[in-house]
Each structure stands twice: as structure tokens, then as C-alpha cells.
């Protein structure tokens, strides 16, 4: 039963990874692409690692999978935020059809 649930998580993770890669190609600007890449890593790769843990169980490989998953879940969103903020501060423009720019509003509020 654990193997079946593990394979479901691995399949779900592969689907997120495929759609994340598709988003990297199809989305219009760096901020949208960064969002797709972050979803790909946090949901896709973490699901694959969790599925691996379910299949191999409480072994050395299972504990390594859990540790890697926790590391990815903690660092990937923070890194994406830092990259997006750095891109905005260096002057990378948003897509022309973007609706709102929260970083610009925050910068105007600081002055």
C-alpha cells in the first residue's frame, strides 16, 4: 500500500515538474517564470522525494529524502523572493499587461 501511495506522489511530482518546465518556456516575464520554477521545485521535487520516502521507508535513503525535502521547502520560496526583489531593484521590467506592482508600492511607501 505504501508503494502505491509513493508512486502516486512521484507521479504527481513529475506532473508538477513538467508543468513548471512548460511555464518556464511559456510565461512572459522573469517574475512569472520565477513563480513557475518555484512551484516546480517546491511541489514537484518535494512530492518526488516524499514518494521516495514512502517507498523506501525508514532507511538511510528515506531519511535523506525527508531532509532534502525539508531543505527545499524552506529555502526555495525564500530564494525566489530574493531573486525577484533583486530583479525588481535592478530595473527588470514587468510584463506590460501586469496588473499590480507591489514592490513599487512598497518602495514608494519607504520614501
Task: Give your account of this protein's structure.
The chain has 111 residues and is mostly helical. The chain is 82% helix and 0% strand. The longest helix is centred in the C-terminal third of the chain and has 30 residues, at 60-89. Helix 1 packs antiparallel against helix 2. The protein has helices spanning 2-26, 30-56, 60-89, 102-110. The protein is elongated and about 50 Å long. The protein has a single domain (2-110), classed as Helix Hairpins.
Q: Quick summary of this structure?
A:
By secondary structure, this protein is mainly alpha-helical. The protein has four helices and no strands.
Considering the chains and any ligands shown, give keywords for the structure.
111 residues, Helix Hairpins
Give start-end ranges of low-pLDDT stretches.
none
Structural class: mainly alpha
Sheet with the most strands?
Answer: none
Number of strands: 0
Percent of residues in beta strands? under 5%
How many domains make up the coordinates?
1
Order of helices and strands: HHHH
Residue-averaged pLDDT: 87
Shape: elongated
The helicity comes to: over 70%
Rg (CA only): 18 Å
At CATH level 2, the architecture is Orthogonal Bundle
Q: What is the tally of helical segments?
A: 4
Please name the CATH topology. Answer: Helix Hairpins
The oligomeric state is: single chain
The CATH C-level name is Mainly Alpha
> How far apart are the first and last residues' alpha carbons, in Å?
58 Å
Amino acid at each position: 500500500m505504501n508503494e502505491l501511495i509513493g508512486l502516486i506522489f512521484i507521479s504527481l511530482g513529475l506532473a508538477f515538474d513538467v508543468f513548471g518546465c512548460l511555464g518556464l518556456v511559456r510565461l512572459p516575464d522573469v517574475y512569472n517564470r520565477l513563480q513557475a520554477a518555484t512551484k516546480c521545485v517546491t511541489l514537484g521535487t518535494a512530492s518526488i522525494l516524499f514518494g521516495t520516502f514512502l517507498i523506501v521507508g525508514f532507511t538511510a535513503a528515506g531519511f535523506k529524502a525527508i531532509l532534502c525535502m525539508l531543505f527545499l521547502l524552506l529555502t526555495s520560496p525564500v530564494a525566489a523572493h530574493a531573486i525577484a526583489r533583486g530583479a525588481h531593484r535592478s530595473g527588470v521590467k514587468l510584463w506590460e499587461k501586469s496588473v499590480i506592482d507591489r514592490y513599487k508600492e512598497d518602495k514608494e511607501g519607504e520614501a
